[in-house]
């Protein structure tokens, strides 16, 4: 009962962390977490993964990465392929959100996770983390579409995972929804994003704001650049993550 109760608290906390609940993350770190510098134990595996998620929610990506690399060794030692996949996905998320980090590092970890998932036919974990992975999977799609790509990933698999992630993103804010990058938008750009987030087309947005469609298009080009996206779907996901329309 002692061990099960700890895992039950971890399971309950994990649901809250999925939506970036900072209070839940702080409570877990205060009462149940271990330091990434401490020894990790197999029987506490689920608790350790919850600790990693709490670090990510709080924006401490360095501690999350340190702990995840130790978890990866532990899971490989005990031959737990599904947990290794989870570790790779969380490493991708942590590197993606870590300031001043090359996004290629994150995509490499995600690629490792997809390769392993294709071997075992395991995709549910990508659905679980959908709100975090949609943009990354879209960029991974572009990477493997290049003529010089020599990896092992099936484009069809990545496309399916991308669809799964988008579906999940509609119902979950994501762990990092409260980590706000230092992106500045003009008041007019925020109004444009708010209208688009409410389902208006660019033409309808132009009419509502009393502007020419070409002006809205110019705003969208700048918004895409600031959000580091290349299409409307990714822009909508990123806007929800940042809470910009609000």
Q: Strand percentage, roughly?
A: under 5%
Tell me the helix content.
55-70%
**How would you sum up the global shape?**
globular
Overall pLDDT level: 86
Helix and strand sequence = HHHHHHHHHHHHH
Separation of termini?
A: 44 Å
**Class of secondary structure makeup:** mainly alpha
Number of strands: 0
Taking all Cα atoms into account, the compactness measure Rg is: 19 Å
Q: Give the uncertain stretches in residue-range form.
A: none
Query: How many H/I helices?
Result: 13
Largest sheet: none
Care to describe what's here?
- By secondary structure, the chain is mainly α.
- Helices cover 70% and strands 0% of the residues.
- The longest helix has 18 residues, at 103-120.
Index terms:
246 residues; mainly alpha
Summary, kept brief:
The protein has 246 residues and is an all-alpha fold. The chain is built from 13 helices and no strands. The model has no long low-confidence stretch (mean pLDDT 86).
Reconstruct the topology from this structure.
Elements: H1 2-17, H2 22-31, H3 45-57, H4 61-77, H5 81-97, H6 103-120, H7 124-128, H8 130-144, H9 155-169, H10 187-197, H11 202-209, H12 213-227, H13 232-242
């Amino acid at each position: 009962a002692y061990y099960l109760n700890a895992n039950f608290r971890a399971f309950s906390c994990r649901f809250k962390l999925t939506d970036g609940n900072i209070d839940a993350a702080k409570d877990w770190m205060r009462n149940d977490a271990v330091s990434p510098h401490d020894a990790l134990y197999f029987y506490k595996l689920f608790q350790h993964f919850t600790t990693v998620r709490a670090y990510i929610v709080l924006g401490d990506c360095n501690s999350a990465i340190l702990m995840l690399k130790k978890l990866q060794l532990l899971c490989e030692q005990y031959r737990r392929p599904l947990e290794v996949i989870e570790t790779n996905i969380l490493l991708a998320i942590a590197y993606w959100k870590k300031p001043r980090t090359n996004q290629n590092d994150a995509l490499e970890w995600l690629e490792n996770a997809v390769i392993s998932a294709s071997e075992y036919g395991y995709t549910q974990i990508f659905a679980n983390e959908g709100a975090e992975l949609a943009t990354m999977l879209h960029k991974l799609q572009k990477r493997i579409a290049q003529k010089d790509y020599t990896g092992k990933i099936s484009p069809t698999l990545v496309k399916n995972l991308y669809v799964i992630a988008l579906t999940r993103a509609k119902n979950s804010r994501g762990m990092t929804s409260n980590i706000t990058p230092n992106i500045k938008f003009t008041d007019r750009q925020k109004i444009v994003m708010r209208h688009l987030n409410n389902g208006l087309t660019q033409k309808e947005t132009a009419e509502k704001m009393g502007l020419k469609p070409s002006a809205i298009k110019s705003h969208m080009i700048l918004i895409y650049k600031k959000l580091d996206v290349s299409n409307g779907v990714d822009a909508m996901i990123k806007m929800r993550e940042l809470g910009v329309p609000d």
